Amino acid sequence: MIYALCLPNCIIAVLPMNVMRRNDVEEWANAGNLPEVAIVILNWNGKKFLEKFLPSVLASTYPNKRIVLADNASADDSIAFVKAHFPNVEIIINSSNEGFAKGYNSALSQVNSDYYILLNSDIEVTPNWLEPLLYVMENYRNAGACQPKILSYHQKDTFEYAGACGGWIDSLGYPFARGRVFDDCESDAGQYDDVAPCFWATGAALCIRAKLYHDAGGLDPYFFAHQEEIDLCWRLQRLGYAVFAVPLSVVYHVGGGTLPKGNSKKTFLNFRNNLVMMHKNLPWREKWWKMPCRLALDAVAAWRALLSGDTGFFTAVAKAHFHYTGWIITGQIPELPFPDKKNEGWYNGSLIWQYFIKKKKKFSEIVVRK
Fold first, then answer.
1. For the whole prediction, is pTM greater than 0.90?
2. CA-wise closest residue to 71 among 49, 97, 33
3. How far apart are CA 155 and CA 151, in angstroms?
4. Do the Cβ atoms of 91 and 83 come closer than 8 Å?
5. For residue 22, what are the contacts with CB-CB under 8 A and spacing of at least 6?
6. For the segment 35-47, what is each residue's pLDDT rounded down to a tens digit?
């Protein structure tokens, strides 16, 4: 699998992207002159996760790293605990709970580094997880962001919902991933172990060029949480950069630590943010018909839930549509170019049709590689 890697106005190289070996990464890391990476963990009342998982982050073998705890005005004793037990961890305290998006924007405005890694507090990392990510970012210069392989902390042979092995999106804006389609997570048998371009990298463990994060506008604070990383990765691609999944790097994610599955607020944020993201990033030639289609499909899902007795889901979707309508009036659309071709990770078909009608539950059944 060969890809032409390019930045705006500049072709960098044609490189084999699926043959990265551990020995290559180790040789690169041992050569020295490594870029600095700031691992920034956003925390809100997460002492139990910090106590459990922060030691694994500190044990990361990559030498040129700093670890920053960005606290969203926690009410527990997270800060006192970290100061007492992990004095080498830098601490930034936000004045209020600003959510995932604005919380990171506020914190990262105070962090100078070559690269950022946005890392959830409920992730256990493996010792050499950083080296493959930085190897890709340094050697493939059009890489704007990348992610590790995300496996479930509770089922370590199974992909985890939040990103699995690289995020994709279908023609109507439904996100899925290599190893996860809707709520179906596959077992990891090495079937997605190639380094591959994707459409979005998980916000649970997002590696991104620091300057590019700010140049692209950071995470959209309107989103608060959920799908803000997809929106950011979409904007990176509109600027001419690529997003990669790097499965040689492995982490384990608990998931659902702040808003568990089935939570009405989570449903509201997912539906609202997905509509806003599409409206922001689709060209008008697609937006004029895709947005009505999405609203109609959302309505079908909402009424189906109501008829089955789930009034919370119905109310959350209705609220999401109401807020999306308000955003159209007041929101801002980024003035960025639209690529002539769809980016890697774009599935030019209907995930709804493949999953619910044709009963295809695996990524490899939907996206067939020739």
1. yes
2. 97
3. 8
4. yes
5. 248
6. 999 999 999 999 9
